[in-house]
Amino acid sequence: MSRYDKVDSAYKFLKGKEVSQDSFSLDELAKATGWETGTCKTYVSKRWFQYVHKDQKDFKVSGVAYLSKKEFRAIHSQKLTQLEDQSEQGKLIKKAKEFALLAVSTYNNPFTHFKTHGFIVDLVIAYTALFHAIFEKRGIEYFYKKKDGTPKLIDGQKKAWELTACIKEYWGSINTAEKANLELLIGLRNKIEHRSLPELDLMVAGYCQSSLSNFEEILINEFGDNHSLMANLAIAMQLTRTATAAQEDALKKFQAGNYKVVRDYIEQYNHALPDDIAKSQKYRLNVYLIPNIEKNKNKADLAVTFVKAEDLTADELAAYEQGIALIKGLESPYKYRPGQVVEQVKKVHPNFNMTRHTDAWKKHKARPARPKKEHKNEYCGYVSGFDGYLYSQKWVDLLIAEIK
Question: How confident is the model at residue 84, as a pLDDT?
Answer without folding.
Answer: 57
